[in-house]
Every structure is written in structure tokens, then in C-alpha cells.
Here is the input.
Amino acid sequence: MNSLPSHRDLRVFVHLARGFGRSAWKQLWDQGKIIGINHDDPYGYRQAEDMGCIVEQSEDYPESALKRLLRLAVRAILGFDFLHAWSNRKGILAAEVVWTHTESQALAVLLLLRLHPSARRRIAVIAQTVWVMDNWESYFSLRRAFYRSLLNRADILSFLSTSAAARAQQRFPDNRVEFIKYGIRADQSLAVIERAMHMPIRILAMGNDRHRDWPTFVAAIQNNDLYVARVATGAKIDRLLANIENIRRERANSNPELMELFRWADVVVVCLVENLHASGITVIEEAVLCGIPVITTDAGGLRSYFGPDEVTYVPAKDPQALRSAIDLLVTNEELRQRKARQALARMKNGDLNSRSFVARHVELSNDLCRVQREEAPVRAYSAVAER
Here is the structure.
């Protein structure tokens, strides 16, 4: 276990994917090209500066065509972007604790520290991963062994879903595993709760995640005059939408275009297949902040974020249940508005926003220091209990 200071500002390095470096993000933000409800820094991690931390974030250092080719080749071989971490090694090795955003960054940082054993003894790593538990069985045995050897070195394995955390605790029984609720910026007043419903009912579906269940969504409402839908996705569903007149594909290339979609919608539907990583949580949170009632598949550990009194859950791969849930919400004004208000309150006043997300990282970092100071063994933390 690593020793971290508790009597002064904690030096944190946040390692993010290439393309999400601090300078690159700010430039895109200033140009209005960061789509969604966000901060002017990546994911709002710099809020930790108000919580007793000195925060540095990874940068996208310039690279020639040859260096880019080499980086991508190494990434293809390892399955994570090690050379991006190598380019940021000065900041990583100067930190007292490193936070990562997905497994690509977590594995890269852990490999970097393996190559610097003296630094490893003084740098703690909160290794946040997203898809690794979903993908674990698809890795060939040598890759699983390699990833296990790296992840075992993390001080904390953190996940955005109770489902993934529970699975990880089974596969990494000697590791400390934590569920951290992912949250987005919630300090803006965007919600319009008391909105008139339309006929036909306006349904918005969004997302690019591979765990979106577009066939079930389409089957629930296709060519039914009671519904009209807009679908904002980069998924390859053109063939699925062929000859369907009431579902139109959209693109949100700017925040004004995204907000216009939310203003248009009567209800947001997030239709999913089974997964372990809380697929759809960002879209759900954005809809909630806009005051729109949400219907989602009961999958991925989403109930750890919102209860059934806040969003409407339906079983997986059940078009009839989805259609019935839509009809119930749009015909019951009191139910619709009550759920929207309670979901909004959870985000505004609870532990479900970007500030609480960052605060939990700070709390865990300080806990690593406290445990070391007390010379107490680190126990495997409950991955299922909701905070």
C-alpha cells in the first residue's frame, strides 16, 4: 500500500484517452464542439481542486504520422494505449495518486509503473474501468493473464456499475473493488417538467454504445401512427430503419442541436441488451436534467443510479412492455411529472452528479492515505452495497 499525504494538498494526475487531453478539450469546448452537458475541462475532474487536491491532466502531445502509426500498432497489440501514457509519464510519475477514466488508461498506467518500480511504491492508482468486465471472456487466455497481472497492482479497482463491480470482486477477490456513481454536470437549470404532450407521441432515442437494443425499440413502435421517433446514433441501423415511416434518424452536431432534440421529445427511451457497465447512463442523466421522463431497460446496474420512482424500467427484449410503458407515462400526467421531479432531485441534491463523482475519488484517495497511516490491512470492499 502506498503512502499519501493527508496534511496538505494531494497531487493527483488524471489520465484520459488521447483526444480528451486538457488543452484539446478546452479548445473544442471554446469552439462549441463538446457535445452534451459537460464542463470546460474533461468530465469535471478539476473540481477536485476545491477539495484539497492539485490536479494535473493528461495532454495530447503532438505526434508525427510515423509516431501515430507506432502508437496505434502498440495499442492494437496490447489492447490499450501504452504510448499515450508513456508520453505523459512525467506527470504520472510526479503524482501521488493517479485516476484513470477507462481500462485503456488504467492498464497503460499500471504497465508504466511496473517499468518504474521505485515510483510504484509511492504512487497510488485508482484504476477505473468501464468495459473490461463485459469483455473479459472474449480475451484470449494470455491477454487475460496479462491484464490480471496489471490490474492486481491497482490500489483500487473502480467501476461505474454495481454489476461490473460484483463481477470484478469474483474475479479479483484479493483486490479492493469500488462502485463509483458516474455523474454529469448538474448545476445548470435546464429542466422543464410541466410540458404538454403531443400527438403523435414524440420519442427520442440516443446513443452509440454497442449494448443499445435498436431492434426491440423499432419493433415496439414501427409504423404505428400513435408514435413518432427521432434516433440520434452512429450505429449502423439504416437497414433496420428501411421502410419504417415514423422513425427518423438524426444527427446532433452541436449542443444547440442536442438541446433542440430534448426540447422536442415527450419521452426519452434507452433500450438496452444485458450489460455490466451501466450502458446509457449519460443519456439518462442528460434527459433527467432536461426534465424529460425516461424509460429504460432494466439492465447494467442502472437501478443503483435511479429507482423505479424516478425512471421507468422495462424488461429486456420486450417490445410490448416498452410500448405499454410509453402509453402509461404519456397518459398519466401526475405519474410522468412526479418521476421527472424525483429523478431531477436525485441529481441536483444527491450523490449523482459530476461533483459527487469527483468527491468520491478524493475520498477514496484520502482513505488510501488513512489506511496506510493506521497500518491497517486493506479489505475487499463491498462492491454491491449502494452508497
Notes: The two ends are 24 Å apart (CA to CA). The CA atoms of residues 63 and 364 lie 35 Å apart. The first helix runs from residue 22 to 30. Residues 1-7, 375-387 have pLDDT under 50 and may be disordered.
